[in-house]
Amino acid sequence: MNFPEQLKARLDAIISSSETRQSALIPVLREIQNEYGHLSNESMEKTADMLGLPPSSVQNVATFYTMFFRQPVGKHVVWLCRTLACALRGAEQMEHHVCERLGVKFGETTADGQITLMEAECLASCGTAPVMLVDDTLEENLTRERVDKLLEELRKD
Ligand code: FES
After folding, report:
1. CATH number at residue 147
2. Enclosing domain of residue 140
3. d(CA 66, CA 100)
4. I need a labelling partner for 111 at 20 to 30 A (CA). Which of 17, 37, 39, 152 fits?
5. Which of 39, 64, 89 is the endpoint of a domain?
């Protein structure tokens, strides 16, 4: 697998500004995921090759962090927290509501390919539960009305 020239240039810039090859790994994987939407086996092999790291090191990082996707996902990813504080403040009802609105279960993508719904462990914002992460933005103090509005915006995007 060969990366496109523009991606290759961005990866080279990350690698040359990193103190070590190992420290470049996460930002490099993020950049590749930004390009392709997920990390394929081929792209991880290429990454290991570029960085001179064992393929198992790349695999270990890609499978450890939930922010990395091994399979294609929707244009947007919504992470709904179901851990204790959120559970006590209605996360289960919110899950039913979101699943019904999107027509998917956790781990699935809407038929239009716009939104993937994921279950999250504590998103470190227990004081503003219930919360969800929409791509890189934390949405707090969720209500059904707010969730409907957010999902509608994502579907239109
Ligand atoms: S339990 Fe949901 S943010 Fe902590």
Report:
1. 3.40.30.10
2. 76-156
3. 24
4. 39
5. 64
